[in-house]
UniProtKB/TrEMBL annotation:
It comes from Mesorhizobium erdmanii. This is Cytochrome-c peroxidase. Heme c 2 binds at residues 230, 233-234, 308. Heme c 1 binds at residues 85, 88-89, 105. Binds 2 heme groups per subunit. The keyword Aminoacyl-tRNA synthetase does not apply. It is found in: Periplasm. One of its GO terms (cellular component) is periplasmic space. Its main location: periplasm. Coiled coil: none annotated. The lineage of its organism: Bacteria, Pseudomonadati, Pseudomonadota, Alphaproteobacteria, Hyphomicrobiales. Keywords: Heme, Iron, Metal-binding, Oxidoreductase, Periplasm, Peroxidase, Signal. Residues 63-194, 216-333 form the Cytochrome c domain.
Length: 361
């Protein structure tokens, strides 16, 4: 989706008023789908692995996964005891919360749209500005952010240590360490669980040689996606997420889509060239993760594709182009792993009490 147009402008419509092109649909598809499409696609993208991917400096084990899963769903990681990782990265709704921006501690509204956690392990970095190098670093940030879970490492560890079942799980997951219930190990366990959230899609089957896995329209959209240059940013295993790009490479979008007070990666690097630069969005499961962009201002996928056309490619996509590109994006909707809601350890008399925050009237 490295292309398209301003939110207030509608895509150009091409009206077919003659029968000169009234060929059978299958013939049209045959003319617009290169015979070498699968080979070209494999050179540009990469199919998801069939096993849980490895992560740096954190061997993944069943014990870590189970512990991380419990903590991912446990609202007691937050100071209020209300918010869990799953609150903003809901595995039932595409791995995000389907809000413009997430609601955190005391009903505070966060500054950016929550990215999906699905397949996030394949991203070059985490957050829209790439300030977290991996999922371990990312997992620590919301727990401590005042606008999100508003907790402290000390309070969290006291909470976990107060419940014998958690202590037992940490001992099992980190048996070779002297101090096992630590904030670093919290992050490692959550990372291990999140690494399992891989969603193979019809597109992966196509890349692996199953030509029938994608429809004719999806293949036409894939061809267009590569021919238009979308794949120059949205390539690789996650169809994006592997680099950074200015939002407004060719034409700056309207301020209702690109807020002027959010300069993206500039806040991390303090380099002028990084103003309005963001990590390229991974497009897997994009059909499930509205609203779109870091601002969360666009709710319609067709509109988002059109905006990308003008801002990134300098092209006003036709309605047919947009429809075909969206058809391709639908082939990226994958099968989410079945995750049973965990039964969590019970509190004890020593478990710290929730800290509620009431906003002023």
């Amino acid at each position: 989706m490295a292309s398209v147009q301003n939110a207030g402008r509608s895509p150009v419509k091409i009206l077919f008023t003659t029968v000169a092109v009234a060929l059978p649909a299958i013939a049209f598809a045959a003319q617009t789908i290169p015979v070498y499409l699968s080979e070209t696609a494999r050179a540009t993208f990469k199919a998801l692995p069939s096993i849980t991917p490895t992560v740096a400096n954190n061997p993944i084990t069943p014990e870590k996964i189970a512990l991380g899963k419990a903590m991912f769903f446990d609202p007691r990681l937050s100071a209020s005891g209300v918010l869990s990782c799953n609150s903003c990265h809901n595995l039932a709704t595409g791995g995000d919360d389907n809000h413009e921006s997430s609601i955190g501690h005391g009903w505070q509204k966060g500054p950016r749209n929550a990215p999906t956690v699905l397949n996030a392990v394949f991203n070059i970095a985490q957050f829209w500005d790439g300030r977290a190098e991996d999922l371990k670093v990312q997992a620590k940030a919301p727990i401590q952010a005042a606008v999100e879970m508003a907790n402290t490492p000390g309070q969290l560890i006291a909470t976990l240590k107060s419940m014998p079942q958690y202590v037992e799980w940490f001992n099992s997951a980190f048996s070779g360490e002297a101090d096992r219930v630590t904030f670093e190990n919290v992050a490692k366990a959550i990372e291990a669980f999140e690494a399992t959230l891989v969603t193979p899609a019809p597109f992966d089957a196509f890349l692996n040689g199953d030509d029938a896995a994608m429809t004719s329209e999806q293949k036409q959209g894939l061809t267009l996606f590569m021919d238009k240059g979308c794949s120059s940013c949205h390539g690789g295993i996650n169809v994006g997420g592997e680099g950074y790009a200015p939002f407004g490479l060719v034409e700056k979008p309207n301020t209702d889509v690109l807020p002027e007070n959010d300069k993206g990666r500039f806040a991390v690097t303090r380099e002028a060239d990084d103003s309005y630069v963001f990590r390229v969005a991974p497009l897997r499961n994009v059909a499930l993760t509205a609203p779109y962009f870091h601002s969360g201002k666009v709710w319609d996928l067709k509109q988002a594709v059109a905006i990308m056309g003008t801002t990134q490619l300098g092209q006003e996509l036709t309605e047919k182009d947009v429809d075909l590109l969206v058809a391709f994006l639908n082939s990226l909707t994958g099968k989410v792993p079945e995750v049973a809601y965990p039964v969590l350890p019970a509190e004890t008399p020593t478990t710290p009490r929730p800290v509620l925050h009431i906003l002023p009237q």
